[in-house]
């Protein structure tokens, strides 16, 4: 059934639902809208969430799983997620090369996702065109590609600076908003981050970004035209977004979460979720529970057990939380909130939830997929960034698009207290301001 006339595109995806989902969206778009033959070379940790995403798209694109082998001697449990991903994707190169070489019909194009840029030289071995797909904002792309310059020009830790970082043609970036890998320049993940930015502009024929002009026109323009930035970003950049999931109204089985939402009044429920990997400390979990209770708003909370002080404690295990009611919440919380709140401990049907008429707000960690899904559903946000580039996204949501509120302190610096949570929830769900935000979307 292989049509020899069709261009064949192979796309490499790195572990993490926030990476896999945009790759599958890109693959699906290329296959259904542009009628290309698409193979996704998926490096995943085999969670049920990843499996079901792969299953859902297997009818339009080819999926080849890339084995990783035993990584235990290479991975240090104390290393950051970005370091883990870099090590995994370096290791995956052998499997990627074998997979391509075993294909009856060789690809014409190789697209590497942001963590697999070291696979781009494989394209040269097979004489393929090569692109990197960064499913992030132009804000992030300008920062990661320009980081090689900052690395030379800026002395000391970025986070110790009071002056924002200047990126040519773009709005300055507050030092407290830099992505996690830039927080400590002595950490391995910083070296990986600088290296990735260099890879993007030296190893690829072009950079695809999941963004679009209405979302951040000025920075897209700068990436394409600003002379100083172009002297670093020498390859073409393409704003191909928004690539975001559609609600699956015809979904086979109605989730219990949706059944519960069906019974709630229109616009009355605050959806609370920290993406596929986000976790809160025990203290922050208690404050959040108490804040929700004080606010007297209805809520649907995708909840995970605290993992020490880690903010990305579920990154590699997305949606595989322990069964049964959480035992780490304030005493009596479950009983007192049973009529207004639903706690969800596994993978949630997020897109269907955000498109449900009962949802009136979204307390989100600001992963870019979640931000797009929220905007698409017309749902205003409480921006609660935790890790990766989420602080950058939060500032777009609250300061540029003005479709969200955020706590006075960064949740990664200080525990957000219950009173502030109560206030934000009321502001979003009950006030005129919340209504305006909803209209803006
Ligand atoms: N997601 C979901 N159910 C969950 C948690 C996450 O469907 O219980 C989806 C969410 O809709 C989004 C993706 O997983 O599409 C997470 O990507 P995002 O960029 O928001 O954050 P990340 O998880 O990468 O931090």
TrEMBL record:
Superkingdom assignment: Eukaryota
Listed transmembrane segments: none
InterPro entries associated with the record: UDP_glucos_trans, UDP_glycos_trans_CS
Matches recorded under PROSITE patterns: UDPGT
Pfam families cross-referenced by the UniProt entry: UDPGT
Signal sequence segment: none
Keywords tagged on the record: Glycosyltransferase, Transferase
Keyword Glycosyltransferase appears in the UniProt entry: yes
EC number: 2.4.1.-
SUPFAM superfamilies xrefs: UDP-Glycosyltransferase/glycogen phosphorylase (SSF53756)
A single MF term (Gene Ontology): UDP-glycosyltransferase activity
UniProt cross-references to Gene3D superfamilies, sorted A to Z: Glycogen Phosphorylase B
Role, per record: May glycosylate diterpenes or flavonols in leaves.
Family according to the record: Belongs to the UDP-glycosyltransferase family.
PANTHER family in the record: GLYCOSYLTRANSFERASE-RELATED, UDP-GLYCOSYLTRANSFERASE 72E1
This protein's name: Glycosyltransferase
Source taxonomy: Eukaryota, Viridiplantae, Streptophyta, Embryophyta, Tracheophyta
